[in-house]
Amino acid sequence: MTVKTIPSAAVGRLAVKAAAKQTKRTKWIYAFGNGKADGDVGMKNLLGGKGAGLAEMSRLGLPVPPGFTVTTEVCTIFNKQLGAYPPELESDVNTAITVIEKITGARFGDPSCPLLVSVRSGARASMPGMMDTVLNLGLNDETVNGLASRSGDMRFAFDSYRRFIQMFGDVVMGVSHKSFEEILENQKLDLGVTLDTDLSAEDWKSVIVDYKANIRNLTGEDFPQDPKTQLWDAIGAVFRSWMNGRAITYRKLNNIPHDWGTAVNVQAMVFGNMGEDSATGVAFTRNPSTGENTLYGEYLVNAQGEDVVAGIRTPQQLTIAGKQASNSTLPSMEESMPEVFQELQVVRYRLESHYRDLQDIEFTVQRGKLYMLQTRVGKRTANAALKVACDMVAEGLITKDQAVLRIDPVSLNQLLHPTLDPRAKRQLLAKGLPASPGAACGRIVFTADEAERLAHAGEKVILCRGETSPEDIHGMHAAQGIMTTRGGMTSHAAVVARGMGRPCVAGASQIMIDYETRMMRVSDTVLREGDILTLDGGTGEVLSGRVATIEPKLSGDFSRLMSWADARRRMGVLTNADTPSDCRKAVELGAEGVGLCRTEHMFFETGRIVAVREMILANTVEGRRAALEKVLPMQRSDFAEIFKIMGERPVTIRLLDPPLHEFLPHGEAELLEVAEAAGTEVETVRARVVKLDEVNPMLGHRGCRVGVTYPEIYEMQVRAILQAAAEVAESEGRPVEAEIMVPFVAMAGEVKVLEELITRVADEVLGPNGTGGVKYRIGTMIELPRAALAAGKIAKHAKFFSFGTNDLTQTAMGLSRDDAAGFLPTYEERGLVGRDPFVTIDRDGVGELIRMAVLRGRETRPDLKLCICGEHGGDPDSVEFCHEVGLDYVSCSPYRVPIARLAAAQAAIREMA
Amino acid sequence: MTVKTIPSAAVGRLAVKAAAKQTKRTKWIYAFGNGKADGDVGMKNLLGGKGAGLAEMSRLGLPVPPGFTVTTEVCTIFNKQLGAYPPELESDVNTAITVIEKITGARFGDPSCPLLVSVRSGARASMPGMMDTVLNLGLNDETVNGLASRSGDMRFAFDSYRRFIQMFGDVVMGVSHKSFEEILENQKLDLGVTLDTDLSAEDWKSVIVDYKANIRNLTGEDFPQDPKTQLWDAIGAVFRSWMNGRAITYRKLNNIPHDWGTAVNVQAMVFGNMGEDSATGVAFTRNPSTGENTLYGEYLVNAQGEDVVAGIRTPQQLTIAGKQASNSTLPSMEESMPEVFQELQVVRYRLESHYRDLQDIEFTVQRGKLYMLQTRVGKRTANAALKVACDMVAEGLITKDQAVLRIDPVSLNQLLHPTLDPRAKRQLLAKGLPASPGAACGRIVFTADEAERLAHAGEKVILCRGETSPEDIHGMHAAQGIMTTRGGMTSHAAVVARGMGRPCVAGASQIMIDYETRMMRVSDTVLREGDILTLDGGTGEVLSGRVATIEPKLSGDFSRLMSWADARRRMGVLTNADTPSDCRKAVELGAEGVGLCRTEHMFFETGRIVAVREMILANTVEGRRAALEKVLPMQRSDFAEIFKIMGERPVTIRLLDPPLHEFLPHGEAELLEVAEAAGTEVETVRARVVKLDEVNPMLGHRGCRVGVTYPEIYEMQVRAILQAAAEVAESEGRPVEAEIMVPFVAMAGEVKVLEELITRVADEVLGPNGTGGVKYRIGTMIELPRAALAAGKIAKHAKFFSFGTNDLTQTAMGLSRDDAAGFLPTYEERGLVGRDPFVTIDRDGVGELIRMAVLRGRETRPDLKLCICGEHGGDPDSVEFCHEVGLDYVSCSPYRVPIARLAAAQAAIREMA
User: Fold this and answer.
1) Residue B708 with chain A: CB contacts under 8 Å
2) Which residues form the PEP-utilising enzyme mobile domain (chains A, B) (predicted)?
């Protein structure tokens, strides 16, 4: 491909004259329309989702206005070379326009029968509202008259023209939307009217004059009259919009690579605003909230497409059922346009049987004729995804494996978290649309920035807005839930919240927000920023104060799909759980054992921390032993309870890991308290605190280093574990499997020394021949690079490894999780790291160390049991990695257990494919 | 080998009846004497140094009293199995005793002609005074009379007997030396005498009664009369002494593995205390301080061997020259025993021509007859080592390569550090013997514990003692220098200090130390603990206060040997130097360039730190740029000066590495000062300090992460470097080679981004075609495990790697150097780490990462230049590792440059062998 850099003045326009010799000509343009198409649904990377969908619908013979797609490759060239196009592009576009002209019978710039087109972005992945769109392109001072005469509606024509100028001014020429809105407001004030519909054709003509002057004033340039100039400018603007701030943020949040680029779709205009027999709408082929197998969507009569998505007018339901469900008084399309509705139902069946998945479609009705403008795989709630997948298996559309692959493991989060307790007292404040399910509770904030600020400070917040826009993405992400006072189920807020898995109530129109005074009002109730609000995204209720929650009840579809998943996965799924309640929850969610029980959390409980501190403050082994004697029975009963809950499932207990200073107080008052409890001087305590303090606690005196230097601590823990195991094996008359795990190992010698210690204590507790009921094994964490390298030697003394990928990431990358916030965002922005390496495993670095450890460990001990227990164990990508490198188990927090089960199954299925 | 555990009551005695069938019989005992020997010098591991030396001397026909060696393997069995011996040992010992009896004509326990033996330890490596010795064994209430009649000296016989009881009581039965000394003191008080020599045979008999009662009182057991029992008890005590605390400490300090074990040498007694024609002495075949080729040593007339080493009596010189040099008034052996002296000279020639090295020998003269009791390679000062090596090359005894291999690189430290300025004013306090060369200055301390405590707190201390003992080792190691008021050139203090390379003045007898009041006095001058003292170990001067020092003048032998070394080594040696004075020193010591110039040290200089802090406090890029503009000319002039000094040698400059918060103040007053200087509120400064503070600064926002997030800082530094280079290339009319090094890289992307930045700034500064005179290269530190793994990708953007092994050790092992003190000593004690991994590279872990990085880096870029610049670059073992893995350079601090040169040469020579 040859590209040419265009001087900055002409950025976005075509480099016309560049000569390029190519042996094989790259195709930059893919046409569609009239039941044919150059492209198809398989070309999403090249044509974007919208372009591929339009091509596919055209091939299917669905009513698609003719047009063409400029490929994502052009975008990449354009953005890399600061506004250069491939030299052949101009003639390609001209040819494609001619084809549209032939099909429509209209001509670009023809004053009597002008061709009008839309110019829309369309990336590989859907990025709702992120990039720019221009409609009605081709209108100018002359062609507007042609539109008027052909539509027979002068007012419509000039309204369309002023909309075009406004969009073009905003999107292409950088003139603020607000400046146009002000002109319009002034016009209405002058005329003494309130609604746009009150303006006549003449009024619009006057607005147009002001609009053009506004552009001239603010840019020093005239609004271009030449349709070709308009077109090239609009294409350039769409390509540039790929790199705007909100698009970049969206891609970051959704893990979309910046180098994918967007395609541009140029398509003959159809008008949903040509009167009462015209409409525009958005629909899903099944209900995206519940998965119910019924057409689901909204439409607006006499409106242009963007009006629905923008959520400014509250739209009407497509079906009678939908109308009833939403208590709407406006007529459904099923009632008001029955023929079009039937046509839409046919389209729905065609698309579903073709795509075998729930589709999200956009359409326009122009004077009673249906036109399809988009189809794509529809976003859905996790519940809906489960139901759709299970239903489609039952309908014979897809296989069980396909169903398993179709569920985004992370989306299960939505199903697993608590919902509002129906019996809890609720103070209903207002009711809106149940736009995204789940319960959320937090402090009211009114701006995205404030949401982000407070969330970073650890507060849970609810973002409350009139409506949301792409600028609010970061705040929506930071919030627990989103509430809007305007907009419908397909408004920006609703779509984005569902995608993020955030509960959302949309269009709670009784609420009035006053951004100025930072308060909101429902009749005479006033809520201020910082007050607590609860949302029920499943019912649309907005509640004052905090409301109790209950555990979710999982649907039959959930267990059906999980059973298909479990049948496929090779890896076992354990849980990281420190408390009996965590263990119970994990078992309920399918955990096959405990992969990581952190004993130090038990140390912090009231009544224990005193003894623990006494132990740390003791200067002698005897003093420490005396204090540990007090801790022993407490730890023993903790372990016993966990062994009881876990039944015969293995329980892996990690010996003390954090440095001792973590248990000591730092404030004056607390120091005094500890000194009194320990019967010593506050100065002694302070001195000990200072002595134990570390410059880099992460790399400090912790883990097995504590066990080597203060063996009495580990002895107590091992004793407590095995006494508890023996007790439970005895009382329940069944075997207990305890896995004792040594943390923060750097070299084999450490494991050897502690293996001796553990074995010695075990012989003491269980007797030299062991107690039949108690099976214990000794293993290690692998969480230091050196341990990964020494895995072969370590495996001589360890029967299992558990990869502590949090610490392994910190040490391999030299990256303190607590301190990375200062630069990691910059790194993500500059593409230096893909995803946060603390969320998704760094395959090249940390991953290679794991791979090495697996190989070396298994070489020494072929039946070495391998697990991961860092937080990566609940991240689907990382779970796939674990499957690939041959781990036996992943261990994750209880709520992530189903996610890991599903991800493990997907990895196994993908491997078989 | 079959071993048998002996019941604790009988620990140390023989397991008699155990039956063991062995196909091949292990030899536990090696006899020597009468011009023959079972062993030889090659069996040091099995026989220990002393045993091998005795065997070899016996084979050479030198006069060695007959005896046998119990091997180190027996020690290992004994200490592992808590006091068990191989079953065949008893009969082997009996046989060996019979052989001695035959040679000497005396018999064990024979009342008329008793065989007396010494029982001495002897490990593979010399551990002077660390383990126990028993002399005169075989004496009892009956045999003492035989000794009396055969020696014709009743007094001698009973003195010998009481000495034996005292040693045996102390070493074998655990009765304190002090309790015996008190009995002796009381006896002297009762008799009204002051010297031991004033006691008659009858007096000794009375002492013996009290000694035996003392043992009975304190242990409940009788002093054993049976010589066989005495022998087995003594052998067990020597084996046990291998594991005593001071021996363990010594081995730790000297990197001697605990599993080597000691041998036990049982040898017929000869007596140096049989009158004025008897003597005992210690000698070196050449002067161990200067290397001069002359017999050098001391002797004591009418004394037993231990009296010399203990340093209690001040001994006489062997030669007339030695007597003159030490201003002694006592007759030399050359004068008083000319025949014996000539015999000793013959022995000296025999040993040197046989061993081809300086030997350290022990001998006893019994009634005019010379007996050799020990020979071993003699410890020597670095200067002596150089002279001996060079002289022996000249004498044709060894080759140049052997000479190079013979110098311990670390010992060069002694030559390179400053000595006292002869023109500086000195306030002479006292004069002792020049026991170990070099100048030392520090605060006076009187106990080893205090020395260690203050040294850990960062103080420099001089340990002042009457005499030192093995219990003081840790304090001697912690001290800058050692001063004793008693003892000679071969006293404990002198020998150990020379071995450690610590300056030492021994026997400064004018000084009186009062431990009680913690002061010392010379006539009417009083010095208290904490006062400053200076020692000149080269002259024996003890000086009050601090005395100016001068740089050492290196001898011709030094440059001769270094030239032989340089001719052999493959690796280049660079220096870590941040200042012009460091650079000058390094060039003088042979550095071939700068391998690491840390720019941050320049940031701290007065006048700069204000601008640097201003930069950090700025909230905008512009603010930072403005502050950096002020720093630029300062850095430029620093670099220019270094380029001038280094001539055409390459200079590697590391871009800013530490996190920014390291430059901010923490105290209130300083905060205020900075706020005023920056014209901002103190709260703003405090907030910034808090915001930048890190939990784990080692893994924080540092190194290239600063360069990526605040590119303007690195831009300034690169500009300063290249402007300086261009300036010097221009003014000096010669090329300048600047290597720009990016620190703390974790992934290739970082290097790519910074390569772009550096190249851009370079193009700006040097012009697009570069300035002919300036050659610059971009490289990286490899100091994170992930960087080592990603070396292949990183090498695409880096022309050189420098291994930052300090940080690589910290991250690979998860070991914060600042925090490791809490457990590393325990680890060393338990043998979990060999040497401190921050001193000697951890070959298995860190080493493997380096190996991988070397392989992967060179695969991408075959001419990749590889260097190490961690502190390991000056450690001989680590230098050898660098040679093995194929690095091109090592870089170390200026004073370590010769050490690295020598170590690199030794590695190359060993490789050729």
Assistant:
1) 823, 826-827, 830, 832
2) 459-540
Region for A109 from its dihedrals, namely left if φ exceeds 0, alpha if ψ lies in -120 to 50, beta otherwise: left
Taking the C-alpha atoms of residue A308 and residue A282, their distance in angstroms, rounded to an integer, is 7
**Together in a domain, B36 and B89:** yes
State how many domains chain A has.
5
- B828-861 confidence digits (pLDDT tens): 878 888 778 988 999 999 999 999 999 999 999 9
Query: A19 pLDDT band (50/70/90 cuts)?
Result: very low
In terms of domains, do B332 and B189 share one?
Answer: no
Spatial separation of the C-alpha atoms in residues B603 and B608, rounded to whole Å: 6
Each residue's pLDDT tens digit, B362-416: 999 999 999 999 999 998 888 899 999 999 999 999 999 999 999 999 888 778 8
Q: What pLDDT digit, counting tens, does each position of A461-485 carry?
A: 999 998 887 678 778 888 999 999 8
Grade residue A499 by pLDDT with cuts at 50, 70 and 90: low
**Is B556 domain-assigned?**
no
> Which of B259, B616, B702, B815 best probes binding to A when mutated, by most A CB atoms within 10 angstroms?
B815
A784 and B705 in contact by Cβ < 8 A?
A: no
A278 contacts: CB under 8 Å, gap ≥ 6: A271, A272, A301, A302, A364, A365, A366, A367, A368
Residue type, A45: N
Q: Do A816 and B696 touch (CB under 8 A)?
A: yes
Q: Does residue B398 form part of some domain?
A: no
DSSP state of A107: B
Quick one: A651 and A507 in the same domain?
Answer: no
The two three-digit tokens of residue B636, written as one number = 């430029």
Tokens of A491: 């408004």
The pLDDT of residue B13:
38
Three-class secondary structure of residue A68 per DSSP: strand
- Write out the H or E segment, with its range, that includes residue B429: strand B428-431
Tell me the three state secondary structure of residue B560: helix
Close Cβ partners of A12 (under 8 Å, ≥ 6 residues apart): A6, A83, A232, A233, A235, A236, A237, A239, A240
Rounded distance, CA A495 to CA A128, Å?
Answer: 8
**Domain span at B114:** 19-140+227-269
For residue B497, name the pLDDT band (cuts at 50, 70, 90): confident
What CA–CA distance (Å, rounded) separates B623 from A472? 30
The reply to whether A583 belongs to the active site is no
Residues A372-404 as b or e (16 or more Cβ within 10 Å = b): bbbbbebbbbbbbbbbbbbbbbeeebbebbebb
- Asked if the Cβ–Cβ distance from A786 to B699 is below 8 Å, we say no
Helix (H) or strand (E) holding A760: helix A748-766
The CA distance from B504 to B535, in Å, is 7
A654 is in an annotated binding site: yes
Same domain, B574 and B643: yes
Q: What are phi and psi of B838, to 5 degrees?
A: -85, -10
Quote the CA–CA distance of A281 and A277 in Å, as a whole number: 13
Instruction: Give the ranges where B242-314 is alpha helix by DSSP (H).
Output: 245-253, 306-310
User: Is position A57 within any domain?
Assistant: yes
DSSP B107: B
Closest C-alpha to A167, from A248, A228, A247, A223: A223
A869 catalytically annotated: yes
Query: What is the reported pLDDT for A501?
Result: 67
Say which CATH number the domain at A171 has. Answer: 1.20.80.30
Residues B258 and B132 in one domain: yes
Q: Which two tokens stand for residue A854?
A: 């697996």
Neighbour tally for A141: CB within 10 Å: 12
Annotated binding residue at B805?
yes
Establish whether B804 is an annotated binding residue: yes
Cα angle value A549/A555/A560 (rounded, 5°)? 145
Contact A696 B701 (CB under 8 A): no
Looking at the fold, whether B538 and B601 belong to one and the same domain comes out as no
